[in-house]
C-alpha cells in the first residue's frame, strides 16, 4: 500500500533553522501500498531503491512501526488517529459497490491542519468511502485531490472492474479524468505532486499527502523498471521489484522539486507502508511471518522512516513502538497543534526527533466480530496475543529467487497464540500453553478492549453504485 514521507520544520520543535518564508514545517506524508518488509533496500540489498534508501539512512528508520492488516483500516488510522475498531472500519476493506465510508463525525487530519494555516493537498489512493460527496477528500479537509477512490485498479487505463462490469476511477478534484489512458499512475501522481510544489506559495506551510498506488496488484510496470532486475527469474517477482523502483523514482521527482523550490530544508518526511506485502502477488516480508490480510508480524509490522533537517538524531534504527494511529497527533504536533483528547493515537514527535522513549506501550492489532474473520489481537510490552482468525497465508516465505524451501506450517487457521516478540520476532514459538498466567493477563486486557468495539461498517452492495449509471465512472452521488 503507499509510503509516507513527513517533512517537518524546525521552529515547531525548536531544532533546525526555519524555512524560507514560513516558520511552520512543510509536511509530506507518503504511503506505499502493500510494500513488504523485505521489499526495500535498507532491508534487502537486492532491491534498488536509492532515493528511499538515502532518505531512510540519513533520517530515522523505524523498526517497530505498526500498521493494520489491510488498506482501509490503516488509512482510517492515518486520517483519524483512531483504531479502526473504534470507527467501524475494522472488517476487511470498503468495497466500491457498497455505501461504506468513515462517518462524518470523525475529523480528518487535513481539517485540523487547515485550522493551523496549512495548504492541504492529496495525490493518490483514497479508499475511505465515496458514495456521497461529503465522504470524499475535498470535503474532508483537502484543498485539492488527484487520484482514485477505490482500493485497486489498472495502472494504465485507470479502470476498476467489479465482476464483469466496471468503470474509470480517476478524479481531478470532483471531475472524472478520462484522457490519461495509457499513462502509468506513478508518473501521473508524481507529476501532479511536482506541479503542486512548483505552484506553492512559500509563505504558507504545505501538507502533501501522497498515498501511491505502487505496489498494489495488478503487477504492472514500465519495462525499463522491470529490466533493472533481469537476474530475477520469477516474472511476477521481477515486476513487483520494478514497481518498487518506479515508486522510488517518483518519490525522487517530488523531493527534487522541493529542493528546487527552496522548501526542502524546512520539510519533514514520514514514509510508511499501509500493510505488509501481499505474498500471492509476490510481495515479501521475510523473515517475518505471514503478510497482508494477516495479524502476523508480516502483515502488520511495516517499513517506515522519517527524514528532515529538524531531526536531532539521525542515521540510526529506532526500536521504539509506533502505531499508525500515532501519525495523526505526531503530524499535528510537528505543525504546532495538538490533537483532540480521547483519540487513540499519541504524539511520537520527541521519539522521531531525538530518539526519546515512545509514549506507547501497547496497541490493538485488530478486533473484529464478523464471521469468518472473528479475531482479536493486542500487543502489551513485549507480548503479543492473537485469538481467533489470524489470517492467511500463514508461514515464512523467502522471496522466489532466494534458495531454500518454504517451511510447512501446521498451525490451525483459528486459535490462540502468545508470543514474546522481543525474543521471538518471527513468531515461531507459541507460549500459550507454557505461560498460563501471562495468557490470562493478556486475555483480560483484550476483553477490556473488546468492550469499546464499534459495529463494523459492512453494508450490502447497492446497484446504484454501478458506473454505467454515472457515465462509465465510479462516482459519488448514490447514498
Written overview of the protein:
The protein is α/β, with parallel strands linked by helices and 479 residues long. The protein folds into two domains: 26-360 and 456-469, Alkaline Phosphatase, subunit A (3-Layer(aba) Sandwich), CATH 3.40.720; 367-451, Arylsulfatase, C-terminal domain (2-Layer Sandwich), CATH 3.30.1120. The chain is built from ten helices and 17 strands. Helix 4 (185-199) packs parallel to helix 6. The radius of gyration is 21 Å and the shape is globular. It starts with 25 loop residues before the first strand and ends in a 29-residue tail after the last helix. Belongs to the sulfatase family. One of its GO terms (molecular function) is metal ion binding. Keywords: Calcium, Glycoprotein, Hydrolase, Metal-binding, Signal.
Quick synopsis:
This protein is α/β, with parallel strands linked by helices. The protein has 10 helices and 17 strands.
Amino acid at each position: 500500500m503507499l509510503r509516507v514521507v513527513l517533512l517537518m520544520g524546525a521552529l515547531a520543535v525548536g531544532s533546525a533553522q526555519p524555512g524560507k518564508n514560513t516558520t511552520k514545517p512543510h509536511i509530506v506524508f507518503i504511503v506505499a501500498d502493500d510494500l513488504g518488509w523485505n521489499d526495500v533496500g535498507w532491508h534487502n540489498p537486492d532491491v534498488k531503491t536509492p532515493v528511499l534508501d538515502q532518505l531512510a539512512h540519513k533520517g530515522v528508520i523505524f523498526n517497530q512501526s505498526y500498521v493494520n492488516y489491510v488498506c482501509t483500516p490503516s488509512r482510517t488510522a492515518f486520517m483519524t488517529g483512531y483504531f479502526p475498531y473504534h470507527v467501524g472500519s475494522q472488517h476487511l476493506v470498503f468495497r466500491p459497490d457498497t455505501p461504506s465510508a468513515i462517518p462524518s463525525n470523525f475529523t480528518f487530519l487535513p481539517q485540523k491542519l487547515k485550522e493551523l494555516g496549512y495548504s492541504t493537498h492529496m495525490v493518490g489512493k483514497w479508499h475511505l468511502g465515496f458514495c456521497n460527496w461529503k465522504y470524499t477528500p475535498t470535503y474532508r479537509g483537502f484543498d485539492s485531490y488527484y487520484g482514485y477512490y477505490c482500493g485497486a485498479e489498472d495502472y494504465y487505463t485507470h479502470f476498476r472492474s467489479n465482476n464483469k462490469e466496471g468503470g474509470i476511477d480517476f478524479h481531478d478534484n470532483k471531475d472524472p479524468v478520462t484522457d490519461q489512458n495509457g499513462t502509468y499512475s506513478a508518473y501521473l501522481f508524481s507529476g501532479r505532486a511536482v506541479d503542486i510544489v512548483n505552484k506553492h506559495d512559500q509563505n504558507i506551510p504545505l501538507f502533501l499527502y501522497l498515498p501511491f498506488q505502487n505496489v498494489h496488484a495488478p503487477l504492472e510496470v514500465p519495462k525499463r523498471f522491470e529490466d533493472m532486475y533481469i537476474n530475477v527469474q520469477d516474472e511476477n517477482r521481477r515486476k513487483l521489484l520494478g514497481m518498487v523502483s518506479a515508486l522510488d523514482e517518483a518519490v525522487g521527482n517530488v523531493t527534487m522539486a522541493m529542493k528546487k523550490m527552496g522548501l526542502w530544508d524546512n520539510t519533514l518526511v514520514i514514509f510508511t507502508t499501509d500493510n505488509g506485502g501481499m505474498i500471492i502477488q509476490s510481495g515479501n516480508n521475510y523473515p517475518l511471518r505471514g503478510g497482508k490480510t494477516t495479524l502476523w508480524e508480516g502483515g502488520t509490522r511495516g517499513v517506515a522512516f522519517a527524514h528532515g533537517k529538524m531531526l536531532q538524531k539521525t542515521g540510526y534504527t529506532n526500536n521504539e513502538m509506533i502505531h499508525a494511529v500515532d501519525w495523526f497527533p505526531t503530524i499535528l504536533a510537528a505543525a504546532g497543534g495538538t490533537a483532540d483528547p480521547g483519540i487513540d493515537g499519541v504524539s511520537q514527535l520527541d521519539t522521531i526527533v531525538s530518539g526519546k522513549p515512545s509514549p506507547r506501550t501497547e496497541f490493538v492489532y485488530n478486533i473484529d466480530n464478523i464471521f469468518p474473520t472473528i479475531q482479536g489481537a493486542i500487543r502489551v510490552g513485549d507480548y503479543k496475543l492473537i485469538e481467533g482468525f489470524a489470517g492467511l497465508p500463514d508461514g515464512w516465505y523467502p522471496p522466489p529467487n532466494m534458495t531454500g524451501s518454504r517451511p510447512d506450517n501446521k498451525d490451525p487457521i483459528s486459535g490462540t497464540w502468545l508470543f514474546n516478540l522481543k525474543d521471538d520476532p518471527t513468531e515461531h514459538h507459541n507460549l500459550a500453553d507454557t505461560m498460563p498466567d501471562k495468557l490470562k493477563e493478556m486475555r483480560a486486557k483484550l476483553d477490556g478492549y473488546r468492550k469499546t468495539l464499534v459495529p463494523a461498517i459492512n453494508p450490502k452492495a447497492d446497484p446504484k453504485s454501478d458506473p454505467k449509471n454515472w457515465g462509465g465512472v465510479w462516482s459519488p452521488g448514490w447514498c
